[in-house]
Amino acid sequence: MLKRYFIRALWTMILSTLRFFTHLMVRKRNILNREKKPYKETVKNMKFLEEMLLENNYLDKNYHDLTDKMNHKAAEKAVNAFVSKKEKREDEDFYFLVAQEWVKELDKKSFWTSLVFLGLFFALCGATIGLTQIVGDIQGNAVWVIVTALFSSIVLGIFNSLRSRGWRRWSMFFAHVLTISSFFFLIIFFS
Questions:
Q1: With 55 labelled, which of 37, 68, 148, 175 sits at a CA distance of 20 to 30 A?
Q2: Is 91 left (phi over 0), alpha (psi -120 to 50) or beta?
Q3: What does residue 160 show for φ and ψ, rounded to 5 degrees?
């Protein structure tokens, strides 16, 4: 029982890491140039993923879906990417197309994650103001914890906003920059 959960957690970590790095590679500007490193790394990662899925019987040689044996989403998304592009498997860019299919929704997730961190910042600010109204004064380590949480939420929000695309990237980036600049202004003004 414990072995099964360990293997499942290991699969999820490997696939999530591989998906994140594939997402970074697919977004490079010179990805379509077959001679450059991002294209070669993407193809190499997808071949590795295909071998893993074939070895564990999540996918067969004809790219038929065997997800009835599967019990976690990370592998299911990878299998669905291969199955959705199986008609193009003779194409030279097959692995690149599978990679694009596999990571296509990560941009939207980055936007929403950035929005959550912005909301977390405002919730922490509101909680801090409410707490100071009730308690009167916050001192010591509590101040450092609150300031670190506020600053971390903005930094992580900026990181996630830069991972999204188009107008969402810049709107969230400027919202976070405006928030962090007002945060520093308030710290300087009230200290």
A1: 37
A2: beta
A3: -70, -30
Structure tokens at 49: 């993923």
What's the predicted TM-score (pTM) here? 0.65
Distance CA 19, CA 163 (A): 14
Range in 5-9, 69-73, 102-106, 179-183 with the lowest mean pLDDT: 69-73
Domain end, chosen from 68, 83, 103, is at 103
Q: Are residues 119 and 90 in the same domain?
A: no
61-91: b or e for each residue (b if 16 or more CB lie within 10 Å)? Answer: eebebeeeebeeebbebbbebbbebeeeeee
The number of CA neighbours under 13 Å toward the Cβ of 145 is: 6
**Beta bridge partner(s), residue 25:** none
DSSP line for 74-102: HHHHHHHHHHHTGGGTTSTTHHHHHHHHH
Taking the CA of residue 110 as centre, how many other CA atoms within 13 Å lie in the half-sphere pointing to its CB? 24
Q: Look over the chain and give the mean of its residue pLDDT values, rounded to a whole number.
A: 81
- CA separation for the pair 137, 142 (Å, rounded): 10
Domain count, the chain: 2
SS3 59: strand
Same domain, 8 and 96: yes
